[in-house]
Amino acid sequence: MNNYNRTALICGVSGQDGSYLAQLLLHKGYSVWGTSRNAQGSTFSNLGTLGILDQVKMLSMMPEDFRSVFNAIKRSEPNEIYFLAGQSSVGLSFEQPAETIQSGVIGILNMLEACRMFDKEIRFYHAGSSEGFGDTKGQPANEQTPFNPRSPYAVAKASAFWLVNNYRESYGLFACTGLLFNHESPLRPTRFVTQKIVQSAKRISKGSNEKLVLGRIDISRDWGWAPEYVEAMWLMLQQEHPEDYVIATGQTYTLEHFVMLAFSAVDLDWRDHVIQAAEFMRPTDLLISSANPSKAREKLGWQASMNMPQVIENMLNAS
C-alpha cells in the first residue's frame, strides 16, 4: 500500500515519542491522528516545537474507557495504531501505582479488543519497556529473556506485553511490542534524570550556584536517541508477520559516566556540583540494564547510529 493512502492513530501523541513518530509518519505521507485525554485543553508543545502541530488531527480519548477508545478508532479509521499513552515515569509509578497500572494495562486491553471488533485489519504497536526485564545481572536482554519487573511501571508494561501476545495468538491480530531501552531527546520532561542532568549542567555553566541532586549514580543503562527509535516502531508494522523486538544501542554506561560527560562538555568537573540524596533513591532500582538488539538489526534492518555521548551532545546543543 502506498504511504499516501495510510492513516495512523498515535495514542499519546503529545509525548516525546509520539511527537517524533508523528513527524516521521507525516514525512512518509501518512494522514496522522493523535489522541490526548483532553485534546481541546492540551497545548501539544512538543508538536509545536517540531513545527507539525497544525498537521495532526486531534481526538480526545480516555484509554481506560472502552467507548472512548472505540469511537476514536471509528472516527480516525486507521491502518496503524501506535499505543504510546500512559504514565511513563518509573519513579512516579511508585507514587501513582494505580494510575500507572490502569492506563498501561486497561488501556491496552481496550485497544486490542476494539481492534478485534473492526472488519478491516489494523496493525497495532505497543510501546513496551526494558524495565519489564528487571535486573538481568549484566546479561544483555533479548526477546527471550524472562520478565522480572521491579516497579509498578514495569509490572504494567510486562502485563500489557502478555495481553498483546495473547491477542496476537488467539485472534490473529497484527499486534507487536517494541521492548525499548532508554531513549532520550530535548523533548524529554525534566522529571527524567537525563534531562535533569543536562539542563542543570547548562545552567551551572552559565553561572547558576545550584547543586544537582541525584539518587544512585552507579546504575547502568543503555541510552539511545529517541528520533531513531520511532523509526523502529514504524518498521515493526511494515513486516509480513507481527513480532516483538528489543530496541537499543547495545552499549551500556553508568549514570555517573553520563553525568561526567554532560558536565565535562561544558568545561565543569561534575564532582563540584553534584550531591546525592536519599529522597531520590527508589524502593527498588535496577543496577544494570543492558540489551542485545541483534534481532532488530537482522530482521528490521534497524541499528542505532547514536550512542550515549552523542545523545548528550545533541541534548546540550538544543535550544
What structural category do the secondary elements indicate? alpha/beta
* Overall pLDDT metric: 93
Instruction: Let me know the number of strands.
Output: 13
CATH topology of the domain at 3-184 and 224-250 and 293-301: Rossmann fold
Rg result: 19 Å
User: What is the CATH-assigned architecture of the domain at 3-184 and 224-250 and 293-301?
Assistant: 3-Layer(aba) Sandwich
Key words describing this protein structure:
single chain; alpha/beta; Rossmann fold; 7-stranded parallel sheet; 13 strands; globular
What report would you give on this structure?
With 319 residues, the protein is an alpha/beta fold. It has a domain of 218 residues: 3-Layer(aba) Sandwich (Rossmann fold). The chain is built from eleven helices and 13 strands. The strands form four sheets. The protein has a seven-stranded parallel β-sheet with strand order 3-2-1-4-5-6-11, with helices on both faces. Strands 7-10 form a two-stranded parallel ribbon. Helix 3 crosses helix 5 and helix 7 packs parallel to helix 9. The chain starts with 6 loop residues before the first strand and ends with a helix.
Quick description:
With about 325 residues, this protein is an alpha/beta fold.
Annotate the secondary structure layout.
Blueprint: E1 7-11, H1 16-27, E2 31-36, H2 45-49, E3 57-60, H3 66-76, E4 80-83, H4 90-95, H5 97-117, E5 123-129, H6 152-171, E6 175-180, E7 183-184, H7 193-205, E8 212-214, E9 220-221, E10 224-225, H8 226-236, E11 245-247, E12 253-254, H9 255-264, E13 274-276, H10 294-300, H11 308-317
Parallel strand pairs: 1-2, 1-4, 2-3, 4-5, 5-6, 6-11, 7-10, 8-13
Antiparallel strand pairs: 9-12
